[in-house]
Structures are given as structure tokens and as C-alpha cells.
Design a protein that fits this description.
heterodimer; A: mainly beta; Porin; 12-stranded antiparallel beta barrel; two-stranded antiparallel ribbon; B: Globin-like; 2 domains; 9 helices
Chain lengths: 297, 155
């Protein structure tokens, strides 16, 4: 099987951002929980410095994990966060919801559930990801060198049939990454400039949604990059780039996006992005919209 | 070869380059605009009047704050006002000389933790907003104050 059948793209922006009842309910529950427990919030970090939530559940941008840990816990605090995101591209939809814990700004633990919807095949692929991230050094604002973190993401597909059909070797796999992040105060004509660089060791095909490795290819190192400019303490816009392997010889491409993130307060943040996921399972030009909401306790 | 041969980074690194080109262009344009007069950070913050307003708003914020007020409770208000204004004036290249004790001496024994420190930074940001200081000037002032954290917290 070379490629999945390609359905004509008929989604408009409005439709792309329409949330299905399941995800809407989850977002509503998230919001209610956070609204009702504002007084518990651990708030030891400065607004927006933890970033938002990426698609595998780590604190990061949209596609790329960052060195910061989720939530606003400082070195003597604990925080909990939750998020839901939807990426809607030409032929596929990806829904993710997850929870994150931050222990003393040292360890981040997260769990995320991804549902990858292929309307053309009337199929849904599900993947669960259990992750940990450890801050090794620094603080994105104050330390001389960039904040440095090491992360592990353990991924497992609930059903391996599509992955197997496409030639994947395994239905589970582990990613390891090293992330470096720095916020430069006032560095861009007075505006705050952020950058993040990641080196990831992975065997995942399309992040794991299409399984792990193939008969001929396994683990490789991939680079990822993010940068953002803060217009003010509440709004950042930026880009991300995520290199990916092509273990299945389906023309798997790198991912990229441009995003705007809004941090009205420490309890919620909202991210909107235009994403270009290139070719997925042989279907080219997978561009579309990404919307993500994170809430912090 | 550390990167997978199938997806060479340089191929679509063009995208990243375009972002930085656009950023550079924006920065150089604003640099051209600002280099015409080049006001000092002190002037960008509104000069003597601007700093007085920022300090006054900060004092108000601290006075109304349950979390960090106790750090300031023993300070003599008039002296605190004078010295803080002097300090911010000197740090922002204004025509002042800070006459107080070193940051290290002042804060030793106060046991200010990371969350306290960041909270005071937020009260300062809020004070600068209330005093109508431009975001870019705020960021530049914070960039100059940030290296002093090591002399202030956990002491």
C-alpha cells in the first residue's frame, strides 16, 4: 500500500475550528475546574514563561517541546495543568487532550491521548503518551545560559493494524530529547525574544500515529526549533519547525507552523496556529489550523 | 551524519531563515527610526516624572500585597522611595548616583524565594503599566535588573 486514498479537501476554516461534542465537553470541564479553583494556583513563575502545551503533552509550543516545565510552579511549589488541542488539516484531524504535573520546577510528568481521525477511511487511530521531563539547568529568564531539559516520551498505539499495513515495525516506542530554551528580555528592539532548540532521538512515524520504525529503518536524530516574539506580556507570535524521519518511505515530511499565543492570565492560555504538516501517509499538502487551550492550577 | 538523510534540515530551513530575515528587517527598520534621536532608557521611561510615577505605583502595589508586604514592612517609606528612585534612575542611565547599600547587603537575611522574587517583578511590571511606560522600555529595564537576582533572592 503506497498511499491512503485522498479525499478532496472541503473543510473551511470555520468547520476546521468547530469542535466535536467530546472535545467541547472536555474543554468545558477543564474550564470549570480551573475557574472554580483559582485560589489554589501556584504562580511562582512570570506570566507566559512556561509556554503552552505541545501535541505530545509536554510544555512547549504547538508541535515542539520546550525546555520549560508545564505550569507556573517555582522551586518550592507544585502545579497541575490540563489541555486540549485540535489540529485540522486537509485530510486529517488530530485531537489531543492531556494532563501535566510540575514538581518543584524540576520534573514534569504528563499524559496525553491523541485521536487521529482519517475521515476518508472512516478510521480513528488512538495513541497514548506518557512523558517525563527533567530540568537539568537554568531558567529561561535569569540564567546566563539557556535552560536545559531532558525529556522522555513513551508512546503506544491502541490499534496497530494501520501502522502494520503501512510497514511499521512496532506499535510502541520511546522518544528521548534534549531541549534548550532562552528568553532574551528586550533583545528585539525592546521586545522579548524567545528561542528553543531540540534534538530528538526517535523511531516514530508521524509522531507514532503510523507506528515505529520499519523493516529497514529505526532510530534517528531529528532537530526541532521554535522562536517567538512577545508583543507585550500577554501575546506572543512565532514559528516552529520539526524535522521528521521517513522510515516508511511514504514521503513523510518535516512539520512547521506559525502561531499566536494569548496569555490573559496564569490560569488559561490559548494558541492559534497555521500548520503545514506536508505529506502524511502519501497524502500531500496537509495544511490547516491548530487551536489549543491550556488551563493551570 | 547525525540527521536522518531523508529529511535534511537545510532543505526547509528556508522557512526558518525567512522568519529571521523578516525579524531582522523589522528590527533594522525600528533601529533606523530610533537612532535618529536615541533617547536614553531613562528618557524612554519618562525621565524623572516617569520614574517617580513608577516608584509611587510600585509602593502602592506592595502596600496592598499580602504575599510580599512583610519584606518591606520595616523599611522607612521616604528612604525606600528615595533610594529606589535613585537606583532605577542610575540603572537606566539617568543623571543620578545610587547612594544606598549594595543589593546583597540589603537582602541578606530576608530569605526571598523564587516565587516572592518573581511576584515583586510582576508588581513592578504592573506599576510600569499603570505609569504608562512603553513595553519596550519596560523590557529593557527588566533586562538590566535581571542580573541582580543572584544578589537578592535566597539570601
Amino acid at each position: 500500500m503506497k498511499a491512503m486514498p485522498i479525499k478532496m479537501n472541503t473543510y473551511s476554516l470555520g468547520f476546521s475550528l468547530t469542535l466535536n461534542p467530546g472535545i467541547a465537553t472536555r474543554i468545558f470541564i477543564l474550564l470549570s475546574v480551573f475557574a472554580s479553583s483559582l485560589t489554589f494556583a501556584a504562580g511562582g513563575k512570570i506570566l507566559a514563561t512556561p509556554g503552552v502545551s505541545q501535541v505530545e503533552g509536554a510544555a512547549g509550543g504547538g508541535l515542539v517541546p520546550w525546555a520549560q516545565l508545564a505550569g507556573y510552579a517555582s522551586d518550592n511549589e507544585i502545579s497541575a495543568s490540563g489541555f486540549c488541542s485540535r489540529a485540522s488539516v486537509s485530510d486529517y484531524d488530530l485531537d489531543v487532550c492531556g494532563v501535566q504535573a510540575n514538581l518543584f520546577d524540576r520534573v514534569e510528568l504528563s499524559y496525553a491521548k491523541q485521536t487521529f481521525d482519517v475521515p476518508a477511511l472512516n478510521t480513528e487511530l488512538e495513541q497514548s503518551i506518557v512523558s517525563a521531563k527533567v530540568r537539568l539547568y537554568g531558567d529561561i529568564v535569569y540564567s546566563r545560559w539557556p535552560q536545559l531539559s531532558f525529556g522522555v516520551q513513551s508512546k503506544e498505539l491502541s490499534d496497530a493494524s494501520v501502522a502494520n499495513l503501512l510497514g511499521a515495525k512496532d506499535d510502541s516506542g520511546v522518544d528521548y530529547y534534549l531541549a534548550a530554551s532562552k528568553l532574551h528580555l528586550g533583545a528585539a528592539a525592546g521586545y522579548n525574544l524567545f528561542w528553543n532548540f531540540v534534538l530528538r532521538s526517535t523511531s516514530a512515524n508521524e509522531m507514532g500515529l503510523l507506528g515505529f520504525g520499519s523493516t529497514s529503518k529505526g532510530r534517528s536524530l531529528q532537530a526541532e526549533f521554535s522562536s517567538a516574539l512577545f508583543l507585550n506580556p500577554n501575546i506572543a507570535f512565532g514559528i516552529e519547525y520539526r524535522q521528521k524521519p521517513d522510515n516508511l518511505n511514504l514521503g513523510e515530511t518535516d512539520w512547521r507552523d506559525v502561531f499566536i499565543a494569548w496569555f490573559p492570565n496564569k490560569h488559561v492560555n490559548l494558541t492559534l496556529a497555521y500548520i503545514d504538516l506536508g505529506t502524511i501517509a502519501g497524502a500531500p499538502d496537509q495544511t490547516g489550523w491548530y487551536l489549543s487551550l491550556t488551563g493551570n492550577l | 551524519m547525525i540527521f536522518s538523510p531523508n529529511s535534511p534540515l537545510q532543505l526547509d530551513a528556508r522557512f526558518v531563515c525567512q522568519f529571521f530575515l523578516a525579524l531582522l528587517l523589522t528590527l533594522s527598520l525600528s533601529a533606523c527610526v530610533s537612532s535618529a534621536s536615541k533617547p536614553s532608557l531613562y528618557q524612554q521611561l519618562g525621565g524623572e516624572q516617569g520614574l517617580d510615577r513608577i516608584v509611587e505605583e510600585l509602593i502602592q502595589n506592595i502596600g496592598n500585597d499580602k504575599k510580599v508586604f512583610h519584606f518591606f514592612a520595616d523599611a522607612k517609606l521616604s528612604r525606600f522611595r528615595t533610594l529606589l528612585t535613585e537606583h532605577l534612575c542610575e540603572v537606566s542611565d539617568g543623571p543620578c548616583k545610587y547612594s544606598g547599600d549594595s543589593m546583597e547587603d540589603i537582602h541578606t537575611g530576608m530569605h526571598i524565594d523564587e516565587a516572592d522574587f518573581n511576584h515583586i517583578v510582576e508588581l513592578l511590571i504592573d506599576a510600569m503599566n499603570k505609569a504608562d511606560a512603553p513595553v519596550t522600555a519596560q523590557n529593557k529595564l527588566l533586562a538590566r535588573l535581571a542580573p541582580m537576582r543572584k544578589d537578592i533572592y535566597r539570601r
